[in-house]
Design goal:
The protein is of the alpha/beta class and 385 residues long. The chain contains twelve helices and 17 strands. Helix content is 32%, strand content 30%. A hairpin with a 2-residue loop joins strand 5 and strand 6.
């Protein structure tokens, strides 16, 4: 068909777009929702993880069908301090998101392998000229022009490893910063997937976005070897470079994404500034959209831009912490900031990851002698390089 008509067209079938489609299917089943993805499957090639406290209890119906692994605790490791925490931790694999989307939405409403040529508040034009006329359009295709933001970078390569023997890891290692520090703050992230499978990710908080996957793979192999884990084969690999935002112009960033079209996910700036985690905000955003009575394209743009402005304002404190991390501490000493943070109350840590730190939390994080030079810390707080 040269033309498709629908109530809502979602451009981008990754985490944010997929969750919006699922939320609308649950909350607004009378609507025709079309989900458009450039690849041949939804969700890309990702493992998303989150703490149970990241998601409001009333919203967990959206994530519950997607979870593939869960653990009753986690731990962190630093050169001078290690700690086990009781917080529940979950993982979602992109294959599961694809499966749930395909079993929830009508097949004819799922368009894969479709490249988008243009979008407007009520129209999507695909390469080849096919047009999708919608009551409202939501753009969830990933980041806009990051040149409008002042960023550090979180770079990672992760591999799911099939081991020859059981690994005896019983809970996720959220951060193992006992490894050699390279290219800023480096840590290794470990998820036990069954008795003989581990997902291991080599992660850097770096000043530069350049990504050397070959070197990351070598360090992953070294980490496994140092722990006595013999790798039989690599089952999957995931790489990425995420922005760690310190400042910038949200209005220009928003406009760069597709003008006056409603935006979700990273395209709208909806992610935790320090961790770059997008899942908690993607869940909140999907349910917010599904609860709107009027899904007209112009109104969707207005309410999502207002929501983005509020999110940007609420992230001011976190962006200041990012400036301290990147500009007040020597790269090889950045781990000391996280080592200091993880000595704090578990509730404070949980609220931080959820992006909902209280006023008392914020004061507590900055209290005492800072693990960075005081003069540089003051300059970072004031936004000076």
């Amino acid at each position: 068909m040269d033309q498709i008509k629908c109530d809502v067209a979602i451009v981008g079938g990754g985490l944010a777009g997929g969750l919006i489609a699922l939320a609308l299917a649950r909350k607004r089943p009378e609507l025709k929702v079309v989900l458009i993805e450039g690849n041949d499957h939804f969700g890309g090639n990702h493992i998303w993880s989150f703490f149970a406290t990241d998601i409001d209890p009333a919203s967990r119906w959206l994530t519950a069908p997607l979870v593939t692994y869960g653990w009753s605790g986690n731990e962190v490791r630093f050169p001078a301090y290690s700690r086990k925490l009781d917080s529940i931790y979950y993982s979602i694999e992109s294959e599961r998101l694809d499966e749930v989307i395909r079993t929830t939405l009508p097949r004819e409403n799922l368009l894969t392998g479709k490249m988008v040529k243009a979008v407007s508040p009520r129209l999507v034009v695909l390469e080849g000229g096919q047009r999708i006329n919608a009551g409202g359009v939501i753009d969830a295709r990933g980041p806009g022009d990051l040149h409008h933001l002042d960023c550090g970078w979180q770079k990672f390569t992760g591999q799911l490893m099939q081991l020859s023997h059981p690994h005896n890891v019983t809970r996720p290692i959220i951060m193992d910063a006992t490894v050699a520090q390279h290219d800023g703050y480096r840590f290794v992230y470990v998820l036990p997937f069954g008795m003989d499978k581990l997902f291991i990710e080599d992660t850097y908080y770096s000043d530069r976005p350049d990504h050397d996957s070959r070197r990351h793979r070598q360090r992953l192999a070294e980490y496994a070897d140092n722990n006595g884990w013999k790798v039989e084969r690599i089952l999957r690999e995931e790489t990425g470079v995420l922005p760690v935002v310190m400042g910038g112009d949200l209005d220009s960033y928003w406009a760069s994404g597709s003008g006056r079209v409603a935006k979700a996910g990273a395209r709208g700036g909806f992610f935790q500034p320090v961790t770059s985690y997008s899942l908690p905000d993607a869940v909140r955003g999907a349910i917010f959209i599904a609860e709107q009575g009027d899904l007209d394209g112009d109104r969707l743009h207005m309410v999502m831009k207002e929501r983005a402005d509020q999110h940007w304002d609420s992230g001011k404190y976190y962006r200041m912490l990012n400036r301290m991390l990147f500009r007040a501490s020597p790269p090889a000493q950045r781990y000391k900031i996280l080592e200091h943070f993880y000595r704090m109350d578990p509730g404070l840590i949980s609220r931080f990851y959820a992006g909902r730190s209280s006023r008392a939390d914020k004061l507590r994080i900055l209290s005492g002698k800072p693990p960075v030079p005081i003069r540089k810390a003051v300059r970072a707080i004031r936004g000076k390089k």
